[in-house]
Amino acid sequence: MGEKEIDNRFSRFGTVSFTSITKVNDFINYLEQGKIMGTRCKTCGERFFPPRADCCKSLDGNMEWLEVTGYGILQTFSTLYYAPAGFETDLPYTIAVVDFGSCKVFGQLDPAIDAKSLQIGMKLKIAVHKLNEKQLIYRFQEVQ
Amino acid sequence: MGEKEIDNRFSRFGTVSFTSITKVNDFINYLEQGKIMGTRCKTCGERFFPPRADCCKSLDGNMEWLEVTGYGILQTFSTLYYAPAGFETDLPYTIAVVDFGSCKVFGQLDPAIDAKSLQIGMKLKIAVHKLNEKQLIYRFQEVQ
Amino acid sequence: MGKVGIIGVGQSRFVRSFRGSIRELAFEAFSEAMQDAALSTKDINASIICSAPEYDKQRSPSAVLAEYFGLNPQPTCYVESLCSSGTTGIRLAYSLVQSGLHDVVLVAGFQKMSEITSAESQERMGRGADIQWEAPFGTMMPAYYALHAQAHMTRYGTTLYDLAQIRIKSAHYGAQNDKAMIRQTLTMDAFVNPESKFTNPIASPLRMGDCCANADGASCVIVANEEKAKAFSRKPIWILGLGSATASVNMAGRNDFSGLAAAVEAGKQAYHMARVEPKDIDVAEVHDCFTIAELMAYENLGFAKPGEGAALIRAKETYAEGIIPVNVDGGLLSKGHPIGATGGSQVRTIVLQLRGEAGAAQVEDASIGLVHNIGGVGIYANVMILGRE
Amino acid sequence: MGKVGIIGVGQSRFVRSFRGSIRELAFEAFSEAMQDAALSTKDINASIICSAPEYDKQRSPSAVLAEYFGLNPQPTCYVESLCSSGTTGIRLAYSLVQSGLHDVVLVAGFQKMSEITSAESQERMGRGADIQWEAPFGTMMPAYYALHAQAHMTRYGTTLYDLAQIRIKSAHYGAQNDKAMIRQTLTMDAFVNPESKFTNPIASPLRMGDCCANADGASCVIVANEEKAKAFSRKPIWILGLGSATASVNMAGRNDFSGLAAAVEAGKQAYHMARVEPKDIDVAEVHDCFTIAELMAYENLGFAKPGEGAALIRAKETYAEGIIPVNVDGGLLSKGHPIGATGGSQVRTIVLQLRGEAGAAQVEDASIGLVHNIGGVGIYANVMILGRE
Ligand SMILES: [Zn+2]
Ligand SMILES: [Zn+2]
């Protein structure tokens, strides 16, 4: 997918990324375009989020990208008051799982949402957020 | 053996020590006195070098200290031209195994010994060496 | 095939900060298990060493420990499945014995996190989840269990009061266990008094009182085939059932957060192999790294129906006198959680119970016991059923 | 008891720097082995994941790989014995199958050192030895094998010329192996010309030409009980013998440096279990992380008497046409040494040889093969004997 000599684009994912090289590095370019993408196996049709380069059913890597769109349903959430190294200044922050029907997505909530207003079953959408000039992430946002 | 709140004396062993806390921390005090000490199980008489706090035969920790003395016989050796982190400026240096009869000892050779003069089977002695104000080690030396 | 028995168990005291190296820590459990089984090193045909990775400095610790135990030239290896490493090691020891490769296999688990810095341990915790898709969001183990607690509370009406009852039971039995790290009893005051540290928020809805603490510790379990077990031991305890399962590391791969699917599956396998049912279990050790973990275990193992775990603890039915005594050694919440040592410590407790040697917390005439040991938030699950006959 | 067979093998290309994550690297070997065995994920009852610790960032990689392979909820765990992790995993898979716990077990080994910095890998190498008693002296793996080379040369008159002959054989076969990292043939000129990088001193007496190189790579081996092996595979290869042993991590605990005592012991066990002798072996893969390691293996496995290993390579008897062909896939010296993947790659080569599918390096009518896989400098040793019948 990438063509540079050392394609370490994935180091740009999230606040702290321990991964830099992956066959799905194009995920980062899609984030830059404001798109959160999963993959779908062209051989068997299986959808994957997080995206994968390989299908464990077809045992091959014949994948296409597919955008996560629309509204999702909040499955569960938690607000953290302690954090691993690198996240201390973000505290408190809320992580959540949201079901978009064709796939589920794990991520952080937009800090603008009042954690007290959260209810499992509520509708949320997803959007790309630039943490700084280099790092990109996605966050769940309120549906107006 | 130690009595301080956090007894991390073993961090003083060698150029780089990844171990700081051990029941045989007194080994470091003996080094300071110029002595290289193994242990002997008071229950069964087994001798150990490196020293141990526990006897795997008697399944207890009834140990006494015993000094490594006299002359040893060089078993084998190698001069390193590449080194792990922290040893780069010491290169080249020579490691060796020397048999003192009642125990064998692994360590570095005194850099004053010409590596070309080394022969398996030759006699060597052992002595404590201060690497700097904090770190202590032992080295094999020529017998005059 | 013949039976496989446990003929020796040992455990170090679990402490905040052990004053020795990992080999010296592991030796405390090793020597206790060897003395318990009345074996010498030549009787051990192989060893398996278990711990969680990167919490201490020694790479490939199995060879270092085997040498310190006097177990050369017998084979050894390192086995890991996070917090369930210990029972994964015992499962593999069972298979090594049952396959005929070895007669007697020793399993030692240890953890000594106190020698790395707090910053180092924070960094490593960040790499326990999927480093590609979840760690970039700032995940930690309490938050993963909190996701499940939130779902359980919403779905079934479980409350912080219910969770506190589990910690109070734990403290009751921890006070009786002289190898436990935390030995003070607790009352509900600790969970309602806003001055109490136990009410500090960690990851909502979980509070400090819902979480176990890291500890330094070691455990050791010796497994033997039927012939050797009968020859060496007056009271061998038999491995009747073994179950093991996994679930996706990524939360996005899960369908339900009100229980651990891997624990349900592992439990089913173990009951099937042992030909017993939940009602046949006389005493259980479950993986209570968090209060919600014990509550989910009640339901996932069939001690209560889904959603009825809270009723079980409210009725005190998981105390030693109840219908299904659980964690009557204080559990991880009171003993502390030295990751690689935890599974072996759970098995030790059940072995002592089935031998009738469990002291103050002895469950009367316990003959069938269960161990539930979880790695990560149900990423790995092992269930083991042990019996006197 | 029934037999245990190998029904699928796979390997990624071994490369300096793989352009993907560890799960994507491991998938290359996984998918090849699954296609080789014509299985789908539901046919796999459990998996074992092998690598050397701390050379990449993902803690507890077994769950991450099992999820990527589509192997939830089947159990998995991580197994490690340094460079022999792969065959330790296969040994445990054998026992899981033979014990009756599982029918089909998949073993995947991987290593991807290219994503940590060179400084990080240097630091980790310093922690591969006993960190309490040897690391403080500045030890590294080449130096440990050099201690053995020095002793072998002094005792038996082995020369650098003899060692170079082993590397030349390796290069000859590496050039034929399209999955090998280093594919150029070599002549003695590379070892006598002072301008050649192969003459650079590393740890006396070993020179650069005597050492294998790190690589990124993955391997996969699928093990099944007799019934499933016959049902799934036209050409199952049977595990006839398994041996495993250890020696002290501390050099001070060893009596002899001219061979590896653990390899001798593991070999004896494997020959005994398989009821064969060294002369019955048609083709062997031995752990040639250094040239001296292959030379010692000739002697430790009984292909030559102690001290006569050099004569064997001088007479070219370990070439494919010789009396005991060794490492005719190029060995670690040419394939590269992706630590956790190495044992599985060795087993794959022998399986292909016994099936008659080894291509240019096929040994005529090979029916019994041997794998010798060493962890550290003989700290761990595994020997496995495979057969067509
Ligand atoms: Zn597909
Ligand atoms: Zn003794």
Give me the Rg of chain A, rounded: 16 Å
User: Biggest sheet of chain A, open or closed, and with what strands and sense?
Assistant: 5 strands, mixed, barrel
What is the CATH level 1 assignment of the domain at 4-117 and 214-232 in chain C?
Alpha Beta
Find the CATH topology of the domain at 4-117 and 214-232 in chain C: Peroxisomal Thiolase, Chain A, domain 1
Small ligands present: zinc ion
Q: Level of helix content of chain A?
A: under 10%
Question: Spatial order of the strands in the main sheet of chain A?
Answer: 4-5-6-8-7
Q: Estimate the global geometry of chain A from the Cα principal axes.
A: globular
Give me the CATH superfamily of the domain at 4-117 and 214-232 in chain C.
Answer: Thiolase/Chalcone synthase
| Order of helix and strand elements from N to C terminus of chain C | EHEHEHEHHHHEEEHEHEHHHHEE
Number of strands of chain C: 11
Structural class of chain A: mainly beta
Q: Please tell me the overall pLDDT of chain A.
A: 94
Task: Outline the low-pLDDT stretches of chain C.
Answer: none
- Identify the most extensive interface between protein chains: C-D, 64 and 64 residues
Share of helix of chain C, binned: 25-40%
Low-confidence parts of chain A lasting 5 or more residues at pLDDT below 50?
A: none
Oligomerization status of the protein chains? heterotetramer
Outline type of chain C: globular
Q: Average pLDDT across residues of chain C? A: 97
